[in-house]
Amino acid sequence: MQEVYDVPYKPYDLVQSGYLHGISKHPDLPLVDLFHLMHAIYKKEVGAYIRKKLPNYKLLAIDRPKPRGIKGCIEGGWKMILVRNNITSECIAVWSGVDNWETDIIKTIVYSFAAPEALIQEMGKCLEHWQEKFGYIGVFLGHSFGGYFVSRVKPESEWPGRWRITVNAQEPLYEGKSLHFRCQGDLLSWVLNSRKKYWTLEDGSKGHSIKDLYHVIRDEGITWETIILRHS
Q1: What is the mean pLDDT of each run of 10 residues along the chain (232 residues)?
Q2: Among 1.20.120, 1.10.1740, 3.40.50, 2.60.120, what is the CATH number of 12-231?
């Protein structure tokens, strides 16, 4: 099997402060499933896709929070889903990134830059409602701009102990149980952020797309144990 993982830009500052020591700890869920869920949220019929491709999971809810008071040409909100693992009963919240840059660019600019706090507040209300209805939400997942929100919605000071796992996220924060991955060839995380904030995934994990990275994780049989052994 080809060795896929490496960290060419070793994040000494984060290791020294203890953040990345958490790589030896992880959610009690298969790594490939988490990456698959971040891929699944982009599907038009996400419920049908999860039933067919992720039979150990059940889609519980879909929402598209949007900041109050935003008017004009913006339709819809930022896509979030909640799923439950049928074996562990773990609830997992997943954020999408930008689904289509051509059609979503206005929404992305307004939501992400002009009114991020208002959107984050609405996302927090969504999580509160979901947790009250479905039970404890222990894992947050997000790709690209979705990872930006994963780092900021219901922070550790409000909801301690949640796993926050992102891929190619913009400006990820390290607090609590955070693990941030980037593809070796992802320009967005390279240009907008220091590469030292991430675990960099090499070889087949080129580009920004979560689909490509999910296929690397799946096809190469990469597990949590693979990462732990490589970086212990």
Answers
A1: 33 34 69 95 95 97 80 64 96 87 57 71 96 97 92 94 90 84 74 63 67 82 73 51
A2: 3.40.50
